[in-house]
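Exercise 7. Predict the joint structure of the components listed below.
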Amino acid sequence: MSEMKKSTVAVIDYGMGNLHSVAKALEHAADENTSIIVTSDPKVIDAADRVLLPGVGAIRDCIGEMHNAGLVPSIKKAMAEKPFLAICVGIQSLMSHSEENGGVDCLNHFQGNALFFGEKHTDHDGSKLKVPHMGWNQVKQTMAHPLWKDIPDNARFYFVHSFYVVPENKSEVAGTCDYGLEFCVAIARDNVFAVQFHPEKSHKDGLQLYKNFLHWDGKP
Amino acid sequence: MGLAKRIIPCLDVDNGRVVKGVQFVDIRDAGDPVEVAKRYNEQGADEITFLDITASSDDRETTVHMVEAIASQVFIPLTVGGGIRTCEDIRRMLNAGADKVGINTAAVFNPEFVREAAQRFGSQCIVVAIDAKKVSAEGETDKWEIFTHGGRKPTGLDAVEWAKKMVEYGAGEILLTSMDRDGTKNGFDLGVTRAISEAVHVPVIASGGVGNLDHLVDGVIEGKADAVLAASIFHFGEYSIQEAKQRMTDAGIEMRL
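Solution:
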C-alpha cells in the first residue's frame, strides 16, 4: 500500500510569542494525513499546502517582525496561490493601514484601515462599553463561505482586541459583530480568509472553523 | 445581541493538584486539574483561571506541565495567576499555553513590572489581581484598601485609585477579590466592584464570596462586573456552570449558552 502524501499547514512564527494554542487546536482539528508545522522559514511556508498567519500584540511589532524575519514575500506569495487564514492581529496586518501605535502601514492585501474603539466607547443606548472588546460575541455570517460550514449563524466566538477593521469593499465582509457598532470580524477574497476572533479559544465552533480551513480548496 | 458576560471557574492548584476539593464526583478525577478543566469546559465555562499556590518555586515546573496538558485539550481561554514575578515567569506560562497571567503582589511591590509586562506581551494578556478590604466605618464614605498576604497586610493604597493606576500602566483586565467576602458565601462586595468597574475602561472580574447563583446575577447587575469568578459553588457540585448561566439569562443578562 502506498503511503498517502501528507498535507502540510505552515503556522507562521514571526517571534510574536505563543503559537502553542493555535498549533494544538489545528492538530486537534486535523486528521492523520495533515501535519502542522510552526515555522519562520520562508522555504517551508512556500512549500506548505496551507498557511495560517496568527497575530498577537501590537501591530507595529507584528509588521516589523514580519519584515525583519524576511517573511513578507512568502506571506504575499501564499496569499496569491493557496488557502490562507489570518487570525486576530493577523487580520489587521492584511489591511492597508492601522491607526494603532500612531499609525502603521500594513500589507495592503485588503483595502481599508484598522481603527481604535476608543476609551470612551459606548453602546447604542449610550451606556459605557469596556475596551478591549473581550469575551464571547455573536458572529453574523454575511456571506456564504466554505469556512462557515457547520457553524450556526450568530454562533459565539472569543474576542480580545481594541482595534477593528473597516474594509473599503463591503462585498469582502464575510462576518460582522455588534459592540456599540456593527463591525467586520471576518473578511474574504478568493483563497484568503481572515478573522478578528480566536478560533483556537472558541470551543467547538472555533475548532470547526479550523477543520473547515483544513479541508478548504481555496475556492470561495 | 452583543458581548456575553462571562463565568469563570477558578481552581487553586498546589504542586499540580487542585486543592479545593472536588471529591463529590469521581474519586479518580479528584484533584486532577486537567480533568477538572475538561469538565468545566464541557459544562460551558467561558474561561478557566488557575491560581498556583505552590509554595516552592522549584515546583512551578509542575504548573507549566499542567498548563501545557490543559491547553492541548481545552480550547477556551486560560489564565494563570500566583507567583508571577518576572517577565520570564510570564513568558514560560504563555509558551505553555496560558492566554493571560494574573499579577498580584508583584504589582504592589513593583508597579513598573506591570508596565514592562504589558509593553512586552501586550495588555490583552496582563490581568492585575487586586485584593481589597473595606476600611471605612459604618456611616463614612465607602473606602477600600489594597491588602497583601492573603488579606493580612495593609498597604495604604486606595483600591479604586490603584485599579485606575494599573490600567494606566497597561493592565488589560482587573480581577477584583474582596478579602472581606472571600470564603464567606455572603456574595460579592458589590460596592467596590461597581466603584472599580465604573472607574476603569477595561473589563472587571468580580471574585470573593459567591454562595449561590443570585450572587452571580448581583455581581453583574449591581456590581457592573464584566465577568464573575467562583470556586467552591462549582467544585462541590452545588451548581453546574449551565445552571448558573440559565439563572443569569433568566435575570436578563446576555450569556453564551
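Discussion. The first helix of chain B runs from residue 33 to 43.
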